[in-house]
Backbone:
């Protein structure tokens, strides 16, 4: 724990942690995904938070103490779930995203309208179309300028604009990488004895950043590693959207 892998020597079936070599029979890459960051003009970059693990969440919670106004970048699954939680927690929430509806690509427009209406009923305000162009400190608060000229005063910003698979180690090791680490239905990469699953993997052309495909892949890979080669077979994979104001499963 608390170490960083510095390289994979696929030819000798070793990985490196600094100067220490660790041999493996099989190696499973489960590196997850990292948050996408976009440049924002202004002097308040330090007030933009992204949450991808418990340490990120602890930093955000610490920064939010005594604050009341949160601007969320992104209206996808995570942005909407945080909007629901934060409004219920007593925060004034505004969301901004360059799209026409919440959760585009996941929800039918009618369902998206239902979710947005429910969140607006809790007090959330949506700015769909523009992006956050600049963020500056202003006295004890922040001043956010959107690309359409709107100015919003807030106390901190939560960026929830998506994830990108972590593929740097795989790329450096010479594995085939597209959006994610490319694997077949047995989760095998382009190099023998190296597998990948979860958010970092692109399974037979699909990079699915959800819980159900991860669980399905983990069960199949466990069989394969135990000596019973098993291909992933996806069944129904419901995505539970955790917005109590308008609960739904996709």
Residues:
């Amino acid at each position: 724990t608390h170490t960083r892998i510095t390289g994979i020597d696929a030819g000798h079936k070793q990985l490196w942690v600094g100067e220490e070599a660790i041999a493996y029979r099989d190696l499973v890459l489960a590196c997850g995904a990292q948050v996408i960051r976009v440049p924002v003009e202004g002097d308040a970059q330090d007030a933009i938070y992204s949450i991808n693990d418990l340490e990120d969440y602890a930093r955000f919670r610490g920064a939010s103490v005594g604050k009341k106004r949160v601007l969320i970048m992104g209206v996808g699954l995570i942005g909407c779930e945080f909007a629901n939680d934060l409004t219920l927690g007593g925060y004034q929430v505004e969301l901004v995203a360059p799209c026409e509806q919440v959760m585009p690509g996941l929800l039918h427009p009618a369902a998206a309208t239902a979710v947005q209406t429910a969140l607006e009923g809790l007090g959330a305000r949506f700015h769909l179309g523009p992006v956050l162009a600049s963020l500056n400190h202003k006295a004890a608060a922040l001043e956010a300028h959107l690309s359409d000229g709107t100015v919003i005063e807030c106390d901190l910003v939560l960026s929830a604009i998506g994830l990108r698979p972590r593929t740097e180690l795989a790329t450096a090791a010479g594995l085939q990488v597209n959006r994610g680490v490319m694997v077949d239905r047995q989760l095998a990469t382009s190099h023998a004895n190296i597998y990948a699953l979860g958010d970092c993997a692109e399974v037979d052309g699909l990079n699915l950043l959800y819980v159900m495909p991860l669980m399905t892949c983990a069960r199949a890979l466990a069989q394969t590693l135990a000596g019973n080669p098993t291909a992933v077979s996806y069944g129904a994979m419901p995505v539970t959207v955790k917005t109590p104001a308008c609960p739904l499963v996709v």
About this structure: The chain has a mean pLDDT of 96. The first strand starts at residue 7 and ends at 9. The chain has five helices and 19 strands. The longest helix spans residues 211-225.
